[in-house]
Amino acid sequence: MELLYQYAWAIPVLPLFGATIVGVGLIAFNKETNQLRGGISAFLVSLIGMAMVLSLAIFWDQFQGHDAYTKMIEWAAAGDFRLKMGYTIDHLTAMMLVVVTTVAFLVMIYTDGYMAHDKSYVRFYAYLSLFSSSMLGLVISPNLIQVYVFWELVGMCSYLLIGFWFDRKAASEACQKAFVTNRVGDFGLLLGILGLYWATQSFDFGVIGDRLGELVSSGSMSGSVAALLAILVFLGPVAKSAQFPLHVWLPDAMEGPTPISALIHAATMVAAGVFLIARMFPVFEHVPAAMTVIAWTGAITAFIGATTAITQNDIKKGLAYSTMSQLGYMVMAMGCGAYSAGLFHLVTHAYFKAMLFLGSGSVIHGMEVVVGHNAAYAQDMRLMGGLRKHMPITATTFLIGTLAICGIPPFAGFWSKDEILHQAYEANPGLWMVGFVTAGITAFYMFRMYFSTFEGEFRGENKAMLAVIDGEQALLLGKKAKGDHAEDHHHDHEPHESPWAMTLPLMVLAVPSIGIGLLGTPFNNYFESFIHAPGEVFTQGAVDLPEFLIMGGSSVGIGLIGITLAVMMYVQGKIDPAKWAKSNPSLYALSKNKWYFDEIYDLVFVKTTRRLARQVLEVDYKVVDGLVNLTGFVTLLSGEGLKYLENGRAQFYALIVFGAVLGLVIFSGVS
Amino acid sequence: MLSSFPWLSAVIVLPLVAAAFIPVIPDKEGKTVRWYALGASFVNFALIIYALWQNYDFQQPGYQLSESLDWIPALGLTWSLAIDGLSMPLVVLTGLVTTLAILAGWQVKQKPRLFYGLMLVMFGAQLGVFCAQDLLQFFLIWELELVPVYILIAIWGGPKRRYAATKFILYTAISSIFILIAGLAMAFYGDTVTFNLTQLGLKDYPLGFAMLCYLGFLIAYGVKLSMFPFHTWLPDAHGEASAPVSMLLAGVLLKMGGYAMIRMNVQMLPDAHVYFAPMLAVLGVVNVVYGALVSFAQRNLKRRMAYSSISHMGFVLLGIAAYTELGMNGALLQMISHGLIAAALFFLAGVTYDRTHTLNLDEMGGLAKKMPAAFALFTIASMASLALPGMSGFVGELEVFVGFTTSDIYTTSFKVVLVVLAAVGLIVTPVYLLSMLREMFYGKEGKAVAGQVFLDAKPRELFIAASFLVPIILVGFYPRLLTQAYDATTVQIATDARNAIPTLASGDLVTLPQVSMAPAIEALANVSLTR
Question: Which of A103, A230, A648, B354 has a 20 to 30 A CA-CA distance from A266?
Fold first, then answer.
């Protein structure tokens, strides 16, 4: 099986190869390449399929107990400095490879249905392949520099995909916001990498951890400096995994086509932050202060995300805040030292959230038949309702995903979330409390979403509701009501189920969403025996059944309370949500306006930077330029000199200057 | 290894001779001339590659392909040429950028003979600057090269071309007088009179004298490199020049400043460099952040790119000041990489200007739909410029960052402040570059775009852009491809520079800027007293 490892580099290279060919084709032979739609998608899907087969083989081999494998080449060198790149395959990598390739493969099949009518179908596939390649490169990275390289590359792919529909203003702003916010995180990450290299002369995870541990314990480096470096590195995951306070880009990223929301902004790229924390675990575990910061960042994010998701009407935005909240759980787990639990939630979440997003895409696809190609209508849950009758497969899989995320046993989310809450309780009951309350809110908003989308009456042609949305859009864009989509001709009065290319991936994803949690039950934890923190030895301890029942029971309990509340509000109508909103206006506004993060950042960062840039420009123009120009010289020139130049004999002037200089040379040379 | 054939003279003289024949070429519509110029340029580029391939040893740190000839013996002026790992990559860059710039100027209708002639003259002059071994010869070619640039800006530039060209020549000509003064002072210092760069470096100058000479060179090369506060000519010149000329300005001419700074300030005056290095590092960081901020405020596409160049040149200064092998390696890599990236960006700006006839970002928008290929190329070039990994800009900046961080001659607090500030540039750079992309290509169609029919990038334009982007990506993927060609030399330069650092009694190196400028100021005072 050694051969398998020697050729493991092919996993990221295969999709890169495809993306390069199609990309060059698109630039050089645009029309011809765009006509080869089916051929190109089949080609790219089969490449990712090959990568998936390789990944599964490697996973199986690792599961059988093969040693970790690393292969490096010298990448950059200057004098004595050597920087190596390559790939490393261990349990964590093997697991991530499988998650990324399977989700990417299914999403690419789904794309064929979702993007069937898009003119840029081929370009979308090229971007997807490029992203898959970068993401796979990230998970096989053996050192921090290579992580940084692919970290930025997945960010770039995310930028390209969010801005995929470049003629939409919102998309063009969202993609820039995503890239710049991520650069803020990368700024910290780079400084952290530099600082750690300065302290330990290494970019290698394990070596950094060992040396940093020695430095701190021997007292040659103060704990606070180590904590600062660790937190700087953590800024990278904060941005990439949409953690408070750098989470603002993720909801806006929903401007991208839905398949990438599922692949990039739910299952894989946003989880890269959690992956990096796992890779950096040998470093972080020496720095308790950093672990505390990580845990609380995750907890706060989980809470903010869930409370914002409650009031969202856009189905994708709701799911985005839910993703943010779930990522918060994972980060909190990592911060508590619950390495295995955090990564387990990463895996289960990757599958059920990908399914939920693809489900929402299927809903949007169905809605577009009725309300037209306008994201403001097609994604608004107030226009949905009753879709279960028209889209049974989508509705069923969405319900499975909803149950999974709410932590109802035996669905996947229950096991992973319960594990996290359990370990959080042991670390700090305060963290557990936040996670516990958030679990209840999660159950509420997810069922609110399910009920308003799939149950009740279809409201797609409700004139009053359309008018309300028009009004909101007008307020948002500052335009007159009735957008430019009014003339969109609608084909139908009823939504329909999506084609098989879209429903098949949904059904496939439903399998792990139901069953994968069983790999990580506390009774027989296959997952933890495979993935546990480096340096730890896994032992399958006896389960304290009463404790499990209390912890599990209470989290199921609060989930059921949330669900009941959702049923009373959105099915039975016993509680009127509007009335509740009116009686708590400030709380409602806080949630509805996403805790005002965008407004605050706009005021504090965006406007300040603009103003600063303009002021610096003024200084540059008036002070620096003026001073160095030797104001007198300029007046002289602009008066007499330029008058002379104006009559078109500029060359002559140059000759004079040249002659003068030459004369000076000869003069000074002779004398 | 000495080659009998004077390869360097040949590649410098060939384009000049070719230019001399341009007035007599029979040509009616300017079509023969452009083929002729392109052919001459391409042959010369091929000749450069061939000469290096045959005669250059990449593992040798010292000068190679040396040749020397008495030129004007009365002045002690010799025509001597040689290249080492510092100049060799820049010679190749010059060949590539100039050839592609001539191809980019395919559509020049106004005075084509003069245009192509001047481009060929530029080719020779640029090579001369990088190859010259005699200070006086260096100075003459340095000055000679200003004239074609001046004319190229003044005739084929934008609306404010006269102002820009005059400002350019005033800044560079006045500042380069300092080269002459400092050079002559150094040449006549001591017992022997010599203009040879190597021998000038071997002389032992008193510290105060060395520092004055260093300052003179620093001003001259700082202007060329667009070092703050001498950078303000650059946005005018780069902004007003036509695309092919901007390609040369940003791709090659900026690098002359960095090259000469390493060649003379660092190599010839290492004792003075110790005292100026902290200032260089500070100015480098100022360039990075200041350039990025001003760039963000610009509404003119080419001025935005020009300030972006200023920002990127800051990393060269930081690398030069790092006093590590890695920093020096990174400084040179950053120069080469920026040469490719800036040339690509200015070329692409020319491609869109050709269609929209505006450089005002407010009037553009929505170009992506009409020019998908140009959009893709622009995106790739911008990503390269914002130092996206996988492209050469990232490697250069990373090397400078790591090189400066690991430098052992600065105090920790000094390094922390500078590295953090330089890293702020990493945040501002995508802000202005992505805003530029957004304002040009995304969203609704702007005034200059709506209702127009544009041709997407033509095969010739695709070829030029690809010729820049392919090396950018290759170096980004595997930097050793490029760095191993010159690493021997940069290691040598960094080692020599480090040997000049005074050591404490304990044998440790002193740390900067704690050295304090006190001894330097004392030395300066001595000079002024004795004179």
Answer: A230
CA of B475, closest CA in chain A: separation in Å?
Answer: 10
State how far the Cα of A359 lies from the Cα of A501, in Å rounded to an integer. 12
- Structure tokens belonging to residue B403: 């090189």
Please report which helix (H) or strand (E) contains residue A88, including its range: strand A81-89
Three-class SS state of B84 = coil
Pairing label, strands A524-525, A520-521: antiparallel
For residue B225, give the nearest of B249, B262, B202, B254 by alpha carbon: B254
Tell me the sheet residues that pair with B38.
none
CB atoms within 10 A of CB A30: 17
- In this prediction, residue A669 carries a pLDDT of 47
A603 touches chain B (CB under 8 A): no
Which A positions 137-196 lie with beta carbon below 8 A of chain B?
145, 148-150, 152-153, 156, 159-160, 163, 166-169, 171-173, 175-176, 179-180, 183-184, 186-187, 190-191, 194-195
Cβ within 8 Å of residue B43, ≥6 positions away? B14
User: A568 to each of A318, A447, A563, B250, B381, how far by Cα in Å?
Assistant: 20, 11, 9, 67, 56
Strands A69-78 and A81-89: antiparallel
Using a pLDDT cut of 90, give the percent of chain B over it: 45
Residues of chain B neighbouring A186 (CB-CB closer than 8 A): 426
pLDDT at B502 over 80: no
Write down the pTM of the prediction.
0.90
Cα A502 from Cα A509, distance rounded (Å):
11
Q: At what angle do helices A339-371 and A500-515 cross, to 10 degrees?
A: 150
The answer to whether the Cβ–Cβ distance between A176 and B434 falls below 8 Å is: yes
Does residue B102 carry a pLDDT above 80? yes
CB contact, 8 Å: B68 with chain A? no
**A155-214 pLDDT per residue, tens:** 999 999 999 998 888 889 899 999 999 999 999 999 999 999 998 888 988 889 889 888
CA dihedral B55, B57, B61, B62 (to 10 degrees): -20
Interchain proximity A650–B398, CB inside 8 Å: no
Let me know: does A194 contact B405? Beta carbons within 8 Å: yes
Count of positions (residues) in chain B: 531
Residue A534 DSSP class: T
- Which run of H or of E encompasses B8? helix B7-21
d(C-alpha B306, C-alpha B298), whole Å: 10
| Exposure letters B363-396 (e unless 16+ CB within 10 A, then b) | bbbbbbebbbbbbbbbbbbbbbbbbbbbbbbbbb
- Tokens at residue A371, please? 């309300």
- Cβ <8 Å between B136 and A145: no
The answer for B 430-449 residues in CB contact with A (under 8 A) is 430-431, 434-435, 438, 441-444
Can you tell me the distance from the alpha carbon of B315 to that of B318, in angstroms, rounded to the nearest whole number?
5
Q: Average pLDDT of A511-535?
A: 83
**B383 contact residues in A (CB cutoff 8 A):** 156
Q: Which residues pair with A629 in a beta bridge?
A: none
ipTM of the complex: 0.90
pLDDT confidence band for A542 (50 / 70 / 90): confident
SS3 B65: strand
pLDDT, position A52: 94
Interatomic CA distance for residues A125 and A120, integer angstroms: 9
Task: Give the nearest partner residue to A617 out of B177, B294, B456, using CB atoms.
Answer: B294
| Cβ–Cβ gap A160/B443 under 8 Å | no
